[in-house]
Amino acid sequence: MNKEEKNVLPPVEIIPPQISSASQYIPPKQSANALFNFMRKIDYLKLILKNKAIIPRYYEEYINYLGEDIPRIAYPMTCFCDINLQKLIPHTTLYGQYGIVFYKVWGIENKIQPIHYINKNSHICEDFSLLFNRALETESNDEMFEGLKNYLLTHLLFMKPIDGKMKQLGEEKDLNFHDEREWRYVPNIYGMSTEMPLIVPPESLNPVALNSLSEGLKNVEGAWLKFQYSNIKYLIVKDLHDQKELIQYIIEELSCKIDEKYDLISKILVLDELNEDW
Fold it and tell me: Which residue, of 29, 87, 175, 196, has the fewest CB within 10 Å?
């Protein structure tokens, strides 16, 4: 197998785990009992409320801690954090000051998974890197081997180093990823009737391509992360002007019962005001 062939990641199907029912859920004591998703524009928040769904986008992830042959890949995801309210400011500064917040039990029931932070110097990283690279190099029709390869690729989608570089708005930043307490939703693209790829290899990574793929997911409704308004715990906006704008949008534009509109309005938090008391 030549190097170009080696760098092409094979298809991977995400096998959903068994999720505990709500009656078995044990609320956390040292992390937020909520999942926060932040964005940079209020218009994005409005669209999420209108669709009653978050549409995943393709994001680039560096995986060179597993070897230099495949330095980075991209795949569709929606990311959340479970950081307590009083510690959210650094996170909102980085990812945006508009947010939608869900009850954590809803996230668990909808297959949202806390990611595995891996120490790049650990034995588990060495073992995973060895097996991952061998799996890419090996051709086999053995059903068990293909199942193991599928597991490695699936696990990769929910794994991140403790710290490293992240590309954001065209710039690379050095971050401690563990601070983000990330949970991740990755749609099972291969379980849907679509030609959209789950994994984008290094040679196809550029902003135009990733944006085009992300736009394409708007037509793949099966990939959307859908919710009911009752699943929302908070809505977060930057300031009082945004609060008024969002209230007006909820009243005039959302197609739902008036009681649901009042309930949504009651959940709006203003970040600038909260900052005064944190």
Answer: 29
